[in-house]
Amino acid sequence: MIEFSGKITGECRKYRQKIESCVGFFVSLIISVCILIPIIFACIYIDWIFILVIIPLIIFVILATLVPLMNSGKDILPIRVSIGEDNVIESESAIFHDFVALKKVKKVIDMGQWYQIVLIFPNKSARFVCQKDLLVKGTLKDFENIFKNKIVRRFK
Fold first, then answer.
1. Can you give the pLDDT at residue 30?
2. Is 89 helix (H, G, I), strand (E, B) or coil?
3. Measured between alpha carbons, how far is 40 from 50 in angstroms, rounded to an integer?
4. Burial of 70 (0-12, 13-18, 19+ CB in 10 A)
5. pLDDT tens digit string along 89-137?
């Protein structure tokens, strides 16, 4: 059994918050553009006053970008990630508990101080993050042996 346990800190936390912020921006931007198209038609064919709806759309995009940065990471980062003898990876925090079979792992990205476990679609989840200095059971060598053909090194 391999287990990473504790509060994720430092570069890993900043990186995950940055990624979540980018995802929030692009998703909110796509939604806003979909809403903006009928608003433009309403401005042209009905009345120009519909242009006021653009203001809440801009606020929506800004808030969707800022919320992950203001959040301390408790919603997106695990407190414990473990790989059991039953070939299941578990990731949990106070508000989520995800688990997936080892065969669903697409690759493991070695970011230097932490690993990001990437899953095969449709099991995509950013909650499988393992900070190396939080290892409490097993060794990094054991961890890398489990994923020996799937590790991609990406040092900054």
1. 95
2. strand
3. 8
4. exposed
5. 998 888 888 889 888 999 999 988 889 999 988 877 778 888 888 999 8
Tens digits of residue pLDDT in 50-73 = 889 899 999 998 888 887 666 655
CA distance 13 to 18: 9
Give backbone dihedrals phi and psi of 119, rounded to 5 degrees, phi first: -100, 160
* pLDDT tier for residue 156 given thresholds of 50, 70 and 90: low
- Nearest Cα neighbor of 116 from 84, 88, 155, 75 is 155
Say which residues have a Cβ less than 8 Å from residue 18's Cβ, sequence separation at least 6.
Answer: none
What does the alpha-carbon distance between residue 68 and residue 71 come to, in Å, rounded to a whole number?
5
Beta bridge partners of 91: 81, 98
How is 38-81 classified by DSSP, letter by letter? Answer: HHHHHHHHT-GGGGGGHHHHHHHHHHHHHHHHHS-STTTS-SEE
Residue type, 82: S
Q: How far is CA 4 from CA 118, 131, 145, in A?
A: 17, 7, 16
Q: Answer whether 44's CB lies under 8 Å from 100's CB.
A: no
Residue 113's nearest CA partner among 153, 62, 84 is: 153
Are β-strands 135-137 and 80-83 bridged in parallel, bridged antiparallel, or unpaired? unpaired
